[in-house]
Specification:
Length: 344
C-alpha cells in the first residue's frame, strides 16, 4: 500500500500541536526563592590596653600564736609508775608547783624513820660528851653515826624528790601526757610542756610546701590579729630551709613545711592559741609590662597572647615573668598601647 506523503506530514503536524497543547495544561512551576543575605556578626572582644605598672606577689596565711620559750618536763629514770598529774591543759603555774608525781612506795615512812635515827645519834653524842668529854675516839664514833644518819636521810630525800616534776618557772601548760595513773613511765619521755606567755611567735604549717616558695628569713610580714583586729609588723624568723637538722623524724617533717613569724613583745591580742593573718611580700616588680592573668594563654608549654589587629585576632608569643593570682608580668613580646584580647 502506498502512503500519501501529504497525509504523513498532516498527522505529524497534528501530533506536535496536540503535544504542545497538553504541556500548556500542566501547572506552571514556581520560580525558586533566592536565599536571604545574612550580614556577618561583628565579634565583640574584651580588651586590655597594654601599659606599664607595678606587680607584687604576696603570700597570705593564717597562723597560730605559740610560745617561743618552752620547757619540757620529764623523768630521767624508767620503770616507775605514774601516781598523778597535778595540772591540766591551760593551767597557769608558778615556780615550785608540782606538775607530776610518781608512786613513792614507802619512801616517806623511811624518811621519817631516818630522821628519828639521826636524832638518836645526835642525842647519844651529847650524852657521851657530858659523861666522858675526854674520850676522843668514843666522841669520834658518835660523830660518825651522826654523819652516816645524815647521809642516809639526804639519799632518801633525793629519791623522794625524783618522784616529782616541779615547775622551775612560771608558764602555761600547753601539753600534757595522756598516760594513765599506774602506767610505767619511760625515761626522758615528755609529760608536761610549760610555755612562756610573754614571748610569742606566729607559726604556720603549710599543707602544700610550694606555697612557701620564695619566703626567706628577715622578710617583713604584716600581721593582723584576729582577737584585737590590730595590725603589727613582724619578721620571718624561720623557714623550712633555715631550720636546723634533727634526728626526730616527725619534727623534721613538721619543720619542712613550717614558717615562724616574730611579733613585737607585748603585742595586743597576741596570746597562746590565738590566730593571726599574715601577709608577706615575696616578690615585687616596678615599671614593667603587666596584663591581667586572663590575657595570658598557654598551650603545650607555649605562652602567648591574642591581640586585636584591625578587626581580627593575632597571636603573639610572650615571655612571662612574675605571676600572681590576678596579674602577670610580660618580659618580652608586648609593647605599650597594644590591645590584648582577654579570655571570657
Amino acid at each position: 500500500m502506498k502512503v500519501n506523503p501529504f497525509a504523513s506530514k498532516f498527522f505529524l503536524i497534528t501530533g506536535v500541536v496536540l503535544l504542545l497543547a497538553g504541556c500548556s495544561l500542566l501547572p506552571k512551576e514556581e520560580e525558586a526563592l533566592k536565599p536571604p543575605l545574612v550580614k556577618p556578626v561583628k565579634e565583640n572582644f574584651e580588651l586590655y590596653e597594654v601599659k606599664k605598672g607595678n606587680i607584687t606577689k604576696k603570700a597570705t596565711f593564717m597562723g597560730t600564736f605559740k610560745s617561743s620559750q618552752t620547757s619540757n618536763y620529764y623523768f630521767k629514770e624508767s620503770d616507775h609508775r605514774l601516781a598523778a598529774l597535778r595540772v591540766k591543759l591551760g593551767d597557769v603555774v608558778k615556780p615550785g608547783d608540782v606538775l607530776v608525781e610518781l608512786e613513792k612506795g614507802d619512801l616517806e615512812t623511811r624518811i621519817a624513820l631516818q630522821k628519828l635515827n639521826l636524832e638518836k645519834a645526835q642525842i647519844a653524842s651529847v650524852q657521851t660528851r657530858q659523861v666522858d668529854p675526854d674520850q676522843a675516839l668514843t666522841l669520834r664514833l658518835k660523830d660518825i653515826d651522826i654523819e652516816a644518819a645524815k647521809l642516809q636521810l639526804t639519799s632518801l630525800q633525793a629519791q623522794l624528790d625524783k618522784t616529782k616534776l616541779v615547775a622551775e618557772s612560771s608558764g602555761i601548760v600547753t601539753f600534757i601526757t595522756d598516760a594513765q595513773q599506774g602506767s610505767v613511765v619511760d625515761a626522758f619521755n615528755t609529760l608536761v610542756v610549760l610555755s612562756d606567755p610573754e614571748h610569742l611567735e606566729l607559726s604556720y604549717e603549710a599543707t602544700d610546701i610550694g606555697t612557701l616558695t620564695g619566703i626567706e628569713v628577715g622578710m617583713n610580714v604584716e600581721v593582723k590579729l584576729a582577737k584585737s583586729g590590730s595590725t603589727v609588723q613582724g619578721k620571718v624568723l624561720r623557714t623550712p630551709s633555715s631550720t636546723p637538722p634533727t634526728d626526730n623524724k616527725a619534727q623534721a617533717e613538721r619543720n619542712a613545711k613550717t614558717i615562724i613569724i616574730g611579733v613585737p613583745l607585748g603585742t595586743e591580742g597576741a596570746e597562746i592559741g590565738a590566730s593571726g593573718d599574715m601577709t608577706i611580700v615575696v616578690e615585687q616588680r616596678e615599671n614593667v609590662i603587666v596584663i591581667p592573668r586572663k590575657g595570658l594563654r598557654t598551650y603545650l608549654g607555649r605562652d602567648y597572647v591574642q591581640v586585636l589587629n584591625g578587626e581580627s585576632r593575632k597571636e603573639i608569643d610572650v615571655e612571662k615573668g612574675l605571676v600572681t593570682s590576678t596579674e602577670v608580668e610580660i618580659r618580652s613580646g608586648l609593647k605599650e598601647g597594644q590591645n590584648v584580647i582577654l579570655e571570657n
